[in-house]
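Here's my example:
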Amino acid sequence: MAKKEKPKNKSKPHKGRKKTKAETKISKKVKDLEENAAKAHHSAMKANEESLNFAALAFNAKNEQDKAKYSRLTQKYLNKYNADMRDYNSYKSQLKKATTKKNRVVKTKDTDQAAMVAAIQDHAKEFTGEGNMAIFPTKNGKKSDIVFFAPVNTESESNSSSITSYAVDQGAPRKDYARFSSKTVTIDGLIADTDTGSAHDKWVRLRTWHSHHEELTFRGDIYYKHLIISQLDRQFTGFRNTMQVSITFTFVRAAEITTSNKSKKHAKRSKSSKTLAGNRSKKYTAITIKKGDTLWGLAKKYHTTVSWLQKVNHIKNPNRILAGNPIYVNDRKYKAKSKIRVK
């Protein structure tokens, strides 16, 4: 019988980035410690159960010989329980350190959003009773990490900003006195026992993401990639193997941090950062605040900003400056030739 030839253009499944030796080593250590901790805990619980059984037999023994025998066995399993619990606590302590090291060593990568969308679309074609709202990690996410919800109530989004209640300079841009405060997303949904896991397993996954402050992606009628669970509630329904879960997400932002290897002597610094309390008079012009002066007016007059004046003069409230006090403005090249007065 002729041997069947393999198709030449058959593509291999994409396995992702190859792990480094350090990643493989620490991942194996964490896995081994998890298994050892689980075994020690299981052994301790079994020994505790045996000790309780023999203690009951010793209590109900009708003669001293049986009572002494069961008492010895009770103490034997009690000693084993204590030894297993010491091992369990030791493994847990090692596991905590190893997990911290693993988080430093293992490189994080963005979840393949396109692959996740495809998995969600495939799931929507099947009737599973799970619903199509989906939550998964924004970093290092896999298809098996997706938790599906069946919507109960509407999805809601709330945005808030912090706006100063102080009086501000007339004509000053309002945007300088307001900033974005927070964005929250709230959902209610049902999780149920399905082929992808039990409702309890899904709840444990959500609780783990909450306790670890995992950055998550939510896809439903609302879609955001940078969310952290700020509140997680559950209640059991009248239906078997289902529970209703309420989740409040908080949107988080990340700032890009850049570093430079240049020496400090070549770095350019603003004059306000070079200023010390003892040599201000050598760098800046000092004037006396008059009645009616404002920081915004002074900044406009001396070609600088309100924040710069606050920094140099250590002013906490830009709307509160007292007439008669000295204030440092810009360099000597901007020295005032006459007194200023802002109406």
